[in-house]
């Protein structure tokens, strides 16, 4: 474990620098007396003015080669808040001078890969998560907010469910970092403007395979940016920030306890489970990992206590020693080589054991064994055998030892004679007892190996059962695939039906267009009729004015004549001749007047019928408007149905996409299980090599399994590709339908607007036409009335004029006969009587004319009474038209809202598809992207294609800036 100290500058009022820096030690010089002269020794010490490049080259660069050689590595920064941990780990991303360890180590990893042998293929996947409020949040998928920590088969902790993405270039890794960094929790405190409120862990998993010798290595690199310990009195944390500070200090306290327990060395329990941070870093702290801890401190006297605590933490952590091993996945050939090597060792040890037994039998029989014939390397060989067997690399079938026990050796009596010989014999007996003990230990080891072999056989049995269950699972997945194909066919049929309905609706729209054109033509005809009626009405208006003027003049002259007649009649009555002819003429004129009156009544009835006809025409127009509204409502209903169908089709496409993703995941799981089964089968073949029958059957099983797996893989890949093609075609078809539907909606909206405009114009013109027709009818009636009255008055005037002439003549004759006698007086008296009769007749006739005039006035009043009713009905019709217009306007607004909602749904679906494509990168961790060493990454290389080439070194995009 490497400890690196880094001191960061901090601007605080009255800062007192209290630290002296050496190359590998830090000394308190100007702080409190209890700390003055205190020395802390580390592997490296960096001054505050050290550059990012220097920190990386001396502290972190060496770990890149270790990771690419198959070792695990960890780099994390520890210290109080605002001490520069995030600046050290991340720095300013994209800045070649200020970028931190993470971006530099990423570029360095790919540069090493591009400079290695091109026969090595790499698979690199990354994860990015944070520990916030003691919960693990996935920074690449914000929906995963509480992930759990599990252990794999080797009891190594890992975060289950964390998003893993395969990457092939530094740019892709930086995109992942930018995406995750945007989701991190930060806050503003009194000590830091961008204070990290969580511990972030960026995990790089590098797997490599040598295509020549099939050698596989894997290495993990943890890049951890810890949140800083906080003193609430300094940071001013409150509310949610205070809760975050509590959890941060709690997890860092758990980390300190783990470091203290590991540094003690005498504690049997290490509290890794006290915090999720220590649980994740279990391998990095005292496990299989090369760990670099960067201690970040502040040189200000304001932070004296925190600086001391941080340095003490680094001092304890420096005493921890990690034991690292290469993470190597052995191939079948490697296992075979090791097996052969161990078998040769066992055979050699067997020979040595047999020679030792022969020598022992000679010694027991009392025979002296010369020194050159004694077995001297037995002890060394036995020790080697014991170490090899204890490492678990021997099988039970490769060791068979026979020998005697110490009791048998003790039963041999020492021959009497030379004391030197007795001493030598005693020494040999002691050696024999030791050898017997060693033989017993080897026998026990053999028993253990037999037990291990039985366990391996049980493992093979369970593996076969798992294989059969996996076969059943593959059959089930194939059935699900077939069902998915059926669903795709149903979706295609639904799309075809949608296209047919779209054609039908297009035809209906054409029919509506033709109907609108016919309505427009009819409206033009009505407009022409309206114009002609207006012209005729203007003419009638002029004629009516002229007739009124004439009537007024004639009535004035008639009244004058009647006044003169009255004056004349008021004088002395004269004689006149009876005017029987005049009476007959007057009767004829009255008859003519009555005929005119009856004719006027018939014309009034005709006008009433005309009004009824206009009302029926208006009701027909209203019915047409209602039918058009019903058609419009039906069209809207059909559009809403099509939108619902489109929505259901999109949901079905989402379901198909989810099923496809599930199939891909299950396929990858099956591939992984098959690889495990393959490894288990290979181990089984090596364990049962001496049994030729089992070996042949295992090889056949292996070949059949590989062939079957290959067939299933090819079939599944073909199915997946066909599904992808079908889905792409369907998406294209759906896009085309969406465009067509949008065009149809726009055309319908345009036609609706045109129809509304024409309808409004038609209503306005119909209203004007009704008013003009009503005025025309009234004026026609008045004209007829005036015409009849004018004729009647003309005749009466003519009669009065004739009577006036007769009266004047009669007066003249009476004046001439005034000087005559009594006869003339009688004649004059008879003439005066005749004149009186005529005047009475004229008065009677005038009374009748007055009555006719009054009747005409009453009829006119009745018509005026009917006029408000007709106007009321007209207003009701206009209100109905306005209500229909408002309803149509509301319908248009509703259609616009529906269209906006539909557009919003389309945009939302597009955004969801885009987010899904981004989220699918979460599942792309199941799609391997191999990187072939020896050539830099091609920016537009197809996914999954191996990259080959000739040993160039990758230059980041900002290399030119750094060089400048």
From TrEMBL:
Q: Which organism is it from?
A: Amblyomma americanum
Q: Which InterPro entries does the entry link to? A: Khc_C (IPR059182), Kinesin-like_fam (IPR027640), Kinesin_motor_CS (IPR019821), Kinesin_motor_dom (IPR001752), Kinesin_motor_dom_sf (IPR036961), P-loop_NTPase (IPR027417)
Task: Return one GO MF term.
Answer: ATP binding
Entry's SMART domains?
KISc
Q: Does the keyword Coiled coil apply?
A: yes
Write down what this protein is called.
Kinesin-like protein
Which BP terms in the Gene Ontology apply to this protein? anterograde axonal transport of mitochondrion; establishment or maintenance of microtubule cytoskeleton polarity; female gamete generation; nuclear migration; synaptic vesicle transport
The family classification in the record reads: Belongs to the TRAFAC class myosin-kinesin ATPase superfamily. Kinesin family.
* Compartment list: Cytoplasm, Cytoskeleton
Q: Which UniProt keywords apply?
A: ATP-binding, Coiled coil, Cytoplasm, Cytoskeleton, Microtubule, Motor protein, Nucleotide-binding
Keyword Cytoplasm appears in the UniProt entry: yes
What does the entry list under GO cellular component?
A: axon cytoplasm; kinesin complex; microtubule
Which residues does the UniProt record annotate as the domain Kinesin motor?
1-320
Q: Where does ATP bind?
A: 79-86
Oligomeric state and interaction partners are given as:
Oligomer composed of two heavy chains and two light chains.
One Pfam family this sequence matches: Kinesin
Coiled coil regions, renumbered to chain: 325-359, 432-550, 625-806, 839-912
């Amino acid at each position: 474990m490497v400890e690196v100290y880094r001191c960061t500058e901090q601007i605080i009022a009255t800062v007192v620098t209290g630290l002296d820096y050496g190359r590998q030690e830090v000394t308190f010089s100007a702080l409190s007396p209890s700390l003055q002269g205190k020395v802390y020794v580390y592997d490296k010490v960096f001054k505050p003015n050290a550059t990012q490049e220097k920190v990386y080259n001396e502290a972190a660069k060496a770990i890149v080669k270790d990771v690419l050689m198959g070792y695990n590595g960890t780099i994390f920064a520890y210290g109080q808040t605002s001490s520069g941990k995030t600046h050290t780990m991340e720095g300013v991303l994209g800045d070649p001078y200020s970028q931190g360890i993470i971006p530099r180590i990423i570029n360095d990893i790919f540069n090493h890969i591009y400079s290695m042998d091109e026969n090595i293929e790499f698979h690199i996947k990354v994860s990015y998560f944070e520990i916030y409020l003691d919960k693990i949040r996935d920074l690449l998928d914000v929906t995963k907010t509480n992930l759990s920590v599990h252990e794999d088969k080797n009891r190594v902790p890992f975060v289950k469910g964390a998003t893993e993405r395969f990457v092939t270039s530094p740019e892709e890794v930086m995109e992942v970092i930018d995406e995750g960094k945007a989701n991190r929790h930060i806050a503003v405190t009194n000590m830091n403007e961008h204070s990290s409120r969580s511990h972030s862990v960026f995990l790089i998993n590098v797997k490599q395979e040598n295509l020549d010798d099939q050698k596989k290595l894997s290495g993990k690199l943890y890049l951890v940016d810890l949140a800083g310990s906080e003193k609430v009195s300094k940071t001013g944390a409150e509310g949610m920030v205070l809760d975050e500070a509590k959890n941060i200090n709690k997890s860092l306290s758990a980390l300190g306890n783990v470091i203290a327990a590991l540094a003690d060395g005498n504690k049997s329990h290490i509290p890794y489970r006290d915090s999720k941070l220590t649980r994740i870093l279990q391998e990095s702290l005292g496990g299989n990992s090369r760990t670099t801890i960067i201690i970040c401190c502040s040189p200000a006297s304001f932070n004296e206590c925190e600086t001391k605590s941080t340095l003490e933490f680094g001092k304890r952590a420096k005493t921890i020693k990690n034991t690292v091993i290469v993470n190597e996945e052995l191939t079948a050939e490697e296992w075979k080589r090791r097996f052969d090597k161990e078998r040769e060792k066992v055979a050699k040890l067997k020979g040595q054991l047999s020679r030792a037994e022969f020598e022992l039998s000679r010694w027991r029989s009392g025979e002296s064994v010369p020194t050159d014939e004694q077995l001297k390397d037995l002890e060394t060989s036995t020790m080697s055998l014991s170490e090899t067997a204890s490492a678990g690399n021997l099988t039970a079938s490769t060791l068979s030892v026979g020998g005697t026990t110490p009791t048998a050796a003790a039963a041999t009596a020492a021959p009497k004679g030379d004391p030197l010989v007795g001493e030598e014999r005693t020494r040999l007996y002691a050696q024999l007892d030791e050898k017997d003990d060693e033989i017993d230990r080897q026998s026990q080891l053999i028993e253990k190996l037999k037990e291990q072999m039985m366990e391996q056989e049980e493992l093979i049995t369970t593996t076969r059962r798992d294989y059969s269950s996996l076969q059943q699972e593959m059959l089930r997945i194939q059935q699900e695939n077939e069902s998915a194909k059926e669903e795709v066919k149903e979706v295609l049929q639904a799309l075809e039906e949608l296209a047919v309905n779209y054609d039908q609706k297009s035809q209906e729209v054409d029919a509506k267009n033709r109907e609108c054109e016919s309505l427009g033509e009819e409206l033009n005809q009505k407009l022409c009729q309206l114009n002609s009626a207006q012209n005729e009405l203007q003419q009638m208006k002029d004629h009516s004015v002229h007739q009124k003027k004439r009537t007024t003049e004639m009535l004035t002259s008639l009244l004058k004549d009647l006044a003169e007649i009255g004056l004349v009649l008021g004088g002395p009555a004269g004689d006149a001749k009876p005017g029987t002819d005049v009476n007959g003429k007057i009767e004829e004129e009255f008859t003519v007047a009555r005929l005119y009156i009856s004719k006027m009544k018939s014309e009034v009835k005709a006008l009433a019928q005309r009004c009824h006809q206009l009302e029926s025409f208006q009701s027909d127009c209203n019915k047409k408007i209602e039918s058009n509204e019903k058609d419009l409502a039906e069209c809207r209903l059909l559009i809403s149905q099509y939108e619902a169908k489109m929505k259901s089709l999109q949901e079905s496409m989402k379901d198909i996409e989810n099923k496809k993703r599930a199939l891909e995941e299950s396929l990858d799981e099956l591939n992984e299980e098959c690889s495990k089964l393959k490894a288990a089968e290979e181990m089984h073949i090596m364990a049962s090599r001496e049994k030729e029958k089992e070996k042949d059957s295992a090889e056949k099983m292996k070949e059949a399994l590989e062939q079957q797996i290959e067939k299933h893989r090819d079939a599944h890949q073909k199915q997946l590709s066909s599904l992808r093609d079908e889905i792409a075609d369907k998406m294209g078809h759906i896009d085309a339908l969406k465009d067509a539907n949008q065009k149809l909606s726009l055309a319908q909206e345009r036609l609706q607007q045109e129809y509304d405009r024409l309808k409004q114009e038609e209503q306005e013109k119909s209203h004007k036409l009704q008013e003009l027709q009503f005025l025309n009818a009234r004026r026609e009636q008045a004209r007829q009335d005036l015409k009849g009255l004018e004729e009647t008055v003309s005749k009466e005037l003519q009669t009065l004029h004739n009577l006036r002439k007769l009266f004047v003549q009669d007066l003249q004759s009476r004046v001439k006969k005034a000087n005559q006698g009594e006869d003339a007086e009688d004649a004059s008296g008879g003439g005066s009587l005749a004149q009186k009769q005529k005047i009475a007749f004229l008065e009677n006739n005038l009374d009748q004319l007055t009555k006719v005039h009054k009747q005409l006035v009453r009829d006119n009043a009745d018509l005026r009474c009917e006029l408000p009713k007709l106007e009321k009905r007209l207003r009701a019709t206009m209100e109905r038209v306005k209500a229909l217009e408002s309803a149509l306007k509301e319908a248009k607004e509703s259609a616009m809202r529906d269209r906006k909602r539909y557009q919003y749904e389309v945009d939302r679906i597009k955004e969801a598809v885009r987010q899904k494509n981004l989220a699918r990168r979460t599942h792309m961790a199941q799609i391997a992207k191999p990187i072939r060493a020896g050539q830099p990454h091609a920016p537009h290389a197809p996914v999954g294609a191996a990259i080959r080439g000739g040993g160039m070194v990758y230059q980041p995009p900002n290399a030119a800036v750094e060089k400048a």
